[in-house]
Amino acid sequence: FGDQLKVGLLYHQNMGERGEVYTDKFSTSLEDIDFKPIGVFFDKIILGNYNVSFGQGVVMETTDYFSPRRTGYGFTKRAEGISPDLSRSSQYLMQGIASQYTYDLSSSSNIRFTQFISMHPRDAIINEDGSFCTLITMQPRLEWGVNEDQNKIYHPLTSSVNELTWGGNIRLSPTLST
Q1: In the chain, what percentage of residues exceed pLDDT 70?
Q2: Residue range 110-132, pLDDT digits in tens
Q3: β-strand pairing of 81-84 with 60-61
Q4: pLDDT score at 14
Q5: Taking a C-beta distance cutoff of 8 angstroms, is the pair 66, 53 a contact?
């Protein structure tokens, strides 16, 4: 919608997954909002599913398919900061709110701030006593594993724990070429 509002919706189900196991994503983002009087430029404000990437994916990358220059739009370019997520990733998802804004110090330098908070269910192994064992990644995602043996698996593997993730990043650019 125009140049500043973007809305996306995705439904994805891998082959072999039951009807109730799927990935659905929604994101709304406001982009390129300029507050010139106070020197702040909002690069992005995202509500819903989003990706986070710092240091070409070496410092942090939220996707199931690591590629430091993958954007998912049929070509490759360096993805830095936050971006709406409409990829087929199903395990390492961020769902919540994220913002990225730039404070202009002068015409040739700035500081970029990025903050995010996410709460999303993850696949995990839960012990017989209900304690948490480990996070897992499955393809396809099967609620009770390949053998569906509920004598060995005591709790469904899919979406069995909620993960709270929060953080941020500060980038100082003293000149335009750094």
Answers
A1: 85
A2: 888 999 999 999 989 888 888 88
A3: unpaired
A4: 81
A5: no
Place of tokens 């994220």: 98
Q: Which residue has the tokens 């700035």?
A: 110
Place of tokens 């053998």: 147
CA distances from 89 to 53, 85, 93, 127, 172 (A): 14, 9, 7, 26, 31
Q: How far apart are CA 111 and CA 93, in angstroms?
A: 27
User: Pick from 170, 147, 166, 167: which is nearest to 157 by CA?
Assistant: 147
Q: If DSSP codes are grouped into helix, strand and coil, which group holds residue 43?
A: strand
Secondary structure class of 124 (helix, strand, coil):
strand
The closest of 26, 32, 23, 24 to 5, measured between CA atoms, is 32
Cβ neighbours around 82 below 10 Å, total: 25
pLDDT tens by residue, 93-105:
899 999 999 887 7
